[in-house]
DNA sequence: CGGCGTACTTTGCATCAGAAAGTTGATGCA
DNA sequence: TGCATCAACTTTCTGATGCAAAGTACGCCG
């Protein structure tokens, strides 16, 4: 019986990553597509990192990237795909469980006795 | 004004990692030290990975590892340090915020209109 | 027409998670 | 006793990857 109550398999590495988590949250929060520069600002990322992480998210089918123009300047915009939104929600469910488990745990184990030197 | 509301700086990479998060939660949940084999079971990790991640956590001062014997078999036990518990709690605070932001966001942005082809 | 700024992309490096192989020593058994 | 097995870890290796720095392309200003 391989019970592994704390294994948290649902923490997909594509989503469970600071920068990407940040991007997805930003995107989820804004119904309209967001521009490259907006995301950069919202998530505090450098151009290079943003480009890279967006690439990863697109590759995984989580976001849709559209390269167009505003006037005659290039403007890259980005939105969640429906599948992306779903996976994000699923991920969040797991994350909620983690937080619940952990918060509970942290409270419970608060008074951790003295370091007894192990009977043997 | 570098506002980056979704930057989540508090998501320390040492903690924000599936295996390690799993380990810390296990440890936080159990007031008594846990044995290597217990952690392996609880977190669904292989020997090698467990060893590696425990090493990282110890290096970072988050856990204390004690190598002893039970009878005459080696028995490695592990517990959170006070500092470790604190950092875990801090991390959880950020994670809670992420979940809150994101859950809110996911609900809000639910009805994402059709993919309008960008005026230009 | 030459430098500057915007808007990204590409490259390179250093780290690191996970898998596989190795180590040490106790126990079973013939 | 000698050999094989198993338990409990550790070490090594390799591919992936996050981040930073350099690079590209193009419009705009003077």
TrEMBL record, chains A, B:
<dbReference type="InterPro" id="IPR027395">
    <property type="entry name" value="WH_DNA-bd_dom"/>
</dbReference>
<dbReference type="InterPro" id="IPR036390">
    <property type="entry name" value="WH_DNA-bd_sf"/>
</dbReference>
<dbReference type="InterPro" id="IPR011991">
    <property type="entry name" value="ArsR-like_HTH"/>
</dbReference>
<protein>
    <submittedName>
        <fullName>MarR family transcriptional regulator</fullName>
    </submittedName>
</protein>
<dbReference type="InterPro" id="IPR001845">
    <property type="entry name" value="HTH_ArsR_DNA-bd_dom"/>
</dbReference>
<dbReference type="Pfam" id="PF13601">
    <property type="entry name" value="HTH_34"/>
</dbReference>
<dbReference type="GO" id="GO:0003700">
    <property type="term" value="F:DNA-binding transcription factor activity"/>
</dbReference>
<dbReference type="InterPro" id="IPR036388">
    <property type="entry name" value="WH-like_DNA-bd_sf"/>
</dbReference>
<feature type="domain" description="HTH arsR-type">
    <location>
        <begin position="10"/>
        <end position="104"/>
    </location>
</feature>
């Amino acid at each position: 019986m391989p019970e592994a109550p704390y294994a948290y398999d649902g923490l997909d590495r594509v989503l469970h990553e600071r920068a990407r988590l940040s991007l997805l949250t930003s995107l989820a929060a804004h119904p309209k597509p967001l521009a490259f520069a907006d995301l950069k600002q919202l998530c505090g990322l450098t151009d290079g990192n943003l480009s890279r992480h967006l690439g990863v998210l697109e590759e995984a089918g989580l976001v849709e990237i559209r390269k167009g123009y505003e006037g005659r300047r290039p403007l890259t915009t980005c939105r969640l795909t429906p599948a992306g939104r779903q996976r994000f929600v699923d991920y969040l469910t797991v994350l909620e469980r983690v937080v619940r488990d952990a918060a509970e745990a942290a409270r419970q184990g608060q008074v951790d006795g003295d370091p007894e030197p192990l009977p043997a």
